[in-house]
Specification:
This protein has 705 residues and is of the alpha/beta class. It contains 35 helices and 13 strands. Helix 26 crosses helix 28 and helix 32 packs across helix 34.
C-alpha cells in the first residue's frame, strides 16, 4: 500500500498563504511567516527548540505541525483519494539548516574543522553546556553545504556492531558519534574499535566527528588525544542575538549585554538555556503582543521557582475536580474551552473520580470554572493562563508529584484522541505535551503504549494512525547516543519481529522507519523494514518492501542496503530476502549517472556484493529469478556498462553448469521475444556477450585464442 503522497519542498522567505499551497507541495515556515489564525492552529508546544516547521498540502488533508526537540518537524496527513484512508509520516529534519541562521562558532571551531579536513576525524572536546553537540554537527557543513545527511553512530546493544564495523563505512560518508551525555566508560570501552573505524573512514574518504564524554582527557589513547580539538563557550550575547533575530526580534549583542537583568544568563547559562530563554521571550510576545521587546525579555528571565511554589500551593488547595480541570487546561492550552471541559470529564472518568453533578442550570459557567484554576480565554476563544509559563509549570508539577497517576495519564490522552469531540489540533497538542512529560519523567515507553493504542482503525472512531506515528516520532527525537530513543527503537524492533503484530500498527511502523528513523539511523530502519516484509498481512509486507525500494533510490542508502542484503542472504534465514534483493537491486539504478559521478556498477566492491547476492538467489527455483535476470539483460542493451551487469550475473552463478545453462536459455528466449528486427539485433549482441562470459566461466575458449 502506498502510504502517502510524494512531496517537494519550496524555499520560502516571505509570508505565504498556506491555504493556497498546491497539492502535494510543502514549505518550510516559521511562526513569524504565519498568520495569527495559522499560528493558532499549530502553536502551543512550549518545549520546542525553535520555530521552523514544514507545512504540507495534501488531498483533503489535515496537516499538523509539531515543533519538537532539535527543530524536528513532523507532518501527518490523511489521503482520502480512491476511497482509501491512508496515512504517511513525512519529516523534515531542519535543525542543521537552521544552524546557519542561529549558530555562533565557538572559540576553537576553526581548528576542529581544519583537523577534520586533514585527518578525516576529530574529537570535539570542552566543558558541558557550551554547545559541543551543535558544533559537531556544524562541522559537516563546509564540505558539501550540508546537503548530505550524516549518519549517527549508536552504541546501544543493537547499533554497536554496525556502527563500529569498518566495512559499513560508505565512501564520503559523514559519521557522528555523540557521547556528550554518556558515561566515560562507554567511550573508553570502544576506543580501540574506533581506531579501526577511523582507518576505514580515511580509506573511504569519509568523515568522523566524535563528541566524547566529559572528563576522559586523561584516559585517551595517544591517537585520540592528538585528534582532540577543545572548544570554548561562545559569547552568550551573540548566541541569544542570533536566536532572537531568527524570531524577528532584532537585538545587537552589545545592547543585550547592557541589560543588567540578562547579564547572569549571558555569562553563565548553558547554550540550551539561552535557547529556552529565547523561546520564553517568543511566548511572552505571543501573550502580550502590544508590549515592548525589553519587557518580553524581562518576562523570559522571570524566576520560575516562585511560580512553582505558587502552583504547588494552588494544587494543594484544589479538590480532584479542579485538579482535573487545571491539568486539562494546561495540556490543551490554545484549544477551545469545550475541549478542555471534555478532557477534564474524561480524566475524572479514567481515574474513577466521581463528583456530585448538579442540574445543568445550577452548574458554574465554564469561563468561571476556568478562572478558578488561573485560566482564561482570549478573543479567539482559546484557553490560556493569566500568567506566562503557568501551564508548563502546572504540567511539570502533576507529572513530578503524582507518580501513581502517570500511566493513567497516558491512557487518558488516548481516550481524548480517539474521541470525535476533539479536533486534530487538540490531538497534536495532547501528543506533543504528553511526549514532553514522558521524556522528562523517564517514561518514554509510555509513548510506545500510546502508539499501540492509537494505531488500530476502529469502526465508529476517528482514524488516529497519524498520532500513533507522532508518538513514536517524538520518542525517536531524543538524540543521546544511549538515551531514550534507543528504547523506542528497541520496541519498534520487537513489534516488527512479530510477523503477526496488528496490521494497523505494522503500517505505522513502516512509515516511521522509512520516513523518520532512516534519516539518522538508517541501518536500524533497514533492519526493521526487512522484518516487516515477512508480515502475514500482504499489504504490510508490500508496503515495507516498497519503502526499502524508495530508500534505495539514494546512492548511499542503496550501498548500505546492499551491504546488509549480502549478509542476510548468506545467512539464509529468511526466504523473502531473495525477493527483496531482486526488488531493490534494479539494474537501472546501477548504471545511472548523476552529474560527473560514475555509475555504481563500476565500483569493484559493490560488484562483489552483488555477485554474492546473486549466488544465493540462484539457489532458488528458476521461476523466482527468471524475470529479474531478463531485466538485467534488458538494462545492459546499448549501455557502455552493460557488460559489467552481465558479468555480475554470470559470476554470481559460481561456475554452476545448471545455472549457466538456464541463463543461456533465458537469454535465447528473450532474444526471440523481441518485437522487431532492430530490437532483436540489439538483443543478439547482448546474447553473444553473455555467451562469451558463460564460456569463460566454464573454462571454454575458442581454438587459437
Amino acid at each position: 500500500m502506498d502510504l502517502g503522497l510524494r512531496t517537494s519542498t519550496l524555499p520560502v522567505k516571505r509570508p505565504v498563504d498556506l491555504g493556497t499551497l498546491p497539492l502535494g507541495r510543502s514549505v518550510n515556515v516559521t511562526r513569524s511567516m504565519m498568520s495569527t489564525d495559522e499560528r493558532a492552529a499549530v502553536k502551543g508546544i512550549e518545549n520546542a527548540e525553535g520555530d521552523i516547521g514544514l507545512f504540507q498540502a495534501a488531498r483533503e488533508a489535515s496537516a499538523s505541525v509539531h515543533y519538537g526537540d532539535r527543530h524536528t518537524t513532523t507532518i501527518v496527513y490523511t489521503d482520502r483519494g480512491g476511497g482509501l484512508n491512508e496515512e504517511r509520516v513525512s519529516t523534515s529534519v531542519v535543525a542543521d539548516v537552521q544552524l546557519g541562521d542561529r549558530f555562533v562558532a565557538p572559540t576553537g571551531f576553526k581548528r576542529a574543522a581544519d583537523m577534520l579536513l586533514a585527518e578525516r576525524a576529530v574529537l570535539v572536546d570542552g566543558d558541558p553546556g557550551i554547545g559541543r553537540s551543535t558544533a559537531a554537527r556544524r562541522l559537516f557543513q563546509p564540505f558539501d553545504g550540508g546537503k548530505t545527511r550524516y549518519r549517527i553512530l549508536s552504541l546501544d546493544d543493537e547499533g554497536r556492531e554496525v556502527s563500529l564495523d569498518p566495512e559499513a563505512v560508505q565512501p564520503g560518508e559523514p559519521l557522528l558519534l555523540d557521547l556528550a551525555d554518556a558515561a566515560q566508560d562507554v567511550f573508553l570501552d570502544v576506543q580501540d574499535k574506533l581506531l579501526q573505524l577511523w582507518a576505514s573512514v580515511v580509506a573511504q574518504g569519509a568523515m568522523l566527528v566524535i563528541v566524547p564524554p566529559v572528563g576522559v582527557d586523561d584516559c585517551l589513547r595517544p591517537e585520540w588525544d592528538e585528534l582532540r580539538a577543545p572548544i570554548q563557550r561562545p559569547r552568550g550575547s551573540e548566541v541569544l542575538a542570533k536566536h532572537l533575530e531568527a524570531e524577528s526580534m532584532d537585538y545587537d549583542a552589545d545592547v543585550l549585554e547592557s541589560l543588567t537583568f540578562l547579564r547572569p544568563h549571558l555569562d553563565n547559562d548553558p547554550m540550551r538555556e539561552l535557547v529556552r530563554l529565547c523561546r520564553r521571550a517568543v511566548e511572552a510576545r505571543e501573550s502580550n503582543p502590544d508590549d515592548v521587546a525589553t519587557n518580553w525579555l524581562k518576562s523570559a528571565c522571570t524566576d520560575v521557582g516562585g511560580l512553582r511554589r505558587e502552583v504547588a500551593d494552588a494544587v494543594e488547595g484544589w479538590s480532584g475536580k479542579w485538579r482535573a480541570l487545571a491539568l486539562s487546561a494546561a495540556m490543551l492550552k490554545d484549544s477551545n474551552p469545550d475541549s478542555v471541559h471534555l478532557a477534564a470529564e474524561k480524566l475524572r472518568n479514567r481515574l474513577q473520580y466521581r463528583i456530585y453533578r448538579p442540574h445543568v442550570l445550577e452548574q458554574d459557567a465554564l469561563n468561571a470554572m476556568l478562572a478558578r484554576v488561573g485560566a482564561t480565554t482570549n478573543e479567539r476563544d482559546e484557553v490560556g493562563f493569566t500568567k506566562t509559563y503557568y501551564e508548563g509549570v502546572l504540567r511539570d508539577y502533576f507529572w513530578e508529584n503524582f507518580p501513581d497517576m502517570r500511566r493513567e495519564l497516558g491512557h487518558w490522552v488516548g481516550d481524548c484522541i480517539v474521541d470525535f469531540g476533539f479536533t486534530n489540533e487538540d490531538r497534536d497538542r495532547l501528543v506533543a505535551r504528553f511526549a514532553e512529560q514522558a521524556r522528562r519523567s523517564g517514561r518514554i515507553v509510555d509513548l510506545c503504549e500510546l502508539a499501540s493504542r492509537l494505531a488500530p482503525v476502529k469502526e465508529g472512531k476517528p482514524r488516529t494512525r497519524p498520532w500513533a506515528a507522532s508518538a513514536l516520532v517524538y520518542g525517536l527525537q531524543e538524540n543521546s547516543a544511549n538515551g531514550s530513543a534507543a528504547v523506542v527503537r528497541r520496541r519498534i524492533y520487537e513489534w516488527a519481529a512479530k510477523s503477526t503484530v496488528a496490521s494497523d500498527l505494522a503500517h505505522v511502523l513502516v512509515s516511521v522507519c522509512a520516513d523518520v528513523m532512516s534519516e539518522t539511523h538508517a541501518d536500524q530502519a533497514i533492519v526493521r523494514l526487512r522484518l516487516l516484509t515477512t508480515h502475514v498481512d500482504p499489504s504490510v509486507a508490500r508496503a515495507a518492501s516498497d519503502a526499502m525500494v524508495r530508500l534505495a533510490e539514494d546512492s548511499r542508502s542503496y550501498r548500505r542496503l546492499l551491504w546488509r542484503m549480502r549478509i542476510w542472504l548468506e545467512e539464509r534465514r529468511k526466504e523473502s530476502d531473495a525477493a527483496l534483493f531482486l526488488a531493490v537491486s534494479h539494474p537501472s539504478r546501477l548504471i545511472a549517472t548523476s552529474g560527473s559521478s560514475e555509475p555504481l556498477i563500476v565500483n569493484r566492491g559493490l560488484r562483489r556484493q552483488l555477485t554474492s547476492c546473486w549466488r544465493v538467489v540462484f539457489a532458488n527455483a528458476v521461476q523466482t529469478w527468471r524475470s529479474a535476470a531478463e531485466g538485467w539483460m534488458e538494462a545492459s542493451v546499448g549501455d557502455r556498462h552493460g557488460a559489467q551487469l552481465l558479468g555480475v550475473v554470470v559470476t554470481g552463478a559460481g561456475g554452476d553448469r545448471a545455472t549457466l545453462a538456464w541463463l543461456h536459455v533465458i537469454c535465447r528466449d528473450w532474444v526471440a521475444a523481441a518485437d522487431d528486427l532492430d530490437e532483436r539485433e540489439e538483443r543478439r549482441r547482448t546474447f553473444r556477450n553473455l555467451s562469451m562470459k558463460i564460456d569463460a566461466a566454464l573454462g571454454l575458449q575458442l581454438a587459437g585464442t
